[in-house]
Amino acid sequence: MAQSKHSEEEIIKLGEKLISELKLDYTTNTLSRWLVHYLAEQMIKIEDCKDEDLKMKLQKECCNLILDLWQKKDRLPIQKPLDNVGNFLEILTVLKKENNNISILPRWIEYRSVSSGSPWSNFVEKVKNNSEKIFYHSIEANVHKDLLLKDNEWLNNHKEFLSKEEQELIQHLNSMVKIDFSSGVVDMNNYNEESVNREDRVKYIFNEIEKLIEEEKKELLKLKKQVFKEFNKN
What we know:
mainly alpha; 64% helix
């Protein structure tokens, strides 16, 4: 194996972390049980060894084993960095989807003064504004400090073993949960998270989304009524 850029102390610390993560799946997974026993056994051998040369050899072998396991971490039955925010990453993928072959607005609209306030424009504006709020609530439901506890543990204690992209994304997610949208779309801090459990938090978010959808429905019915009222005039 190529020379590691990490110190043996850092690698052993990572091994201890892997053992603790594997133990979470210890009772139901044969692979977890075997890995926990084997890795822990190798570490005990190092601690008990009195021969310094042999101890160095055992420590090197153990470090190679830990690094090999880390390279194959996607196959390990453990909760890996960013596993908890998979839903959020999928939401971002959906929001970033674009079809560059379709232009919704004709180019001349940019150069023409268009009045607003018609029933249709009011309806579209309501849907647009509420949709933005729904997007933020969806993000809020899938990115919060409880979900980031594990990721921050990886970042704070084993940063050297995370990719640059993983480090930056975790740091970015941490900044997102502190964002105050009260001046814009939605206030993510309008209740005390410390006193609200996860179930109540999700209920709150769903209630907010339902209100927004209900507002859109009311605006739609209002538009429908106004449109058919014009037909009846004729």
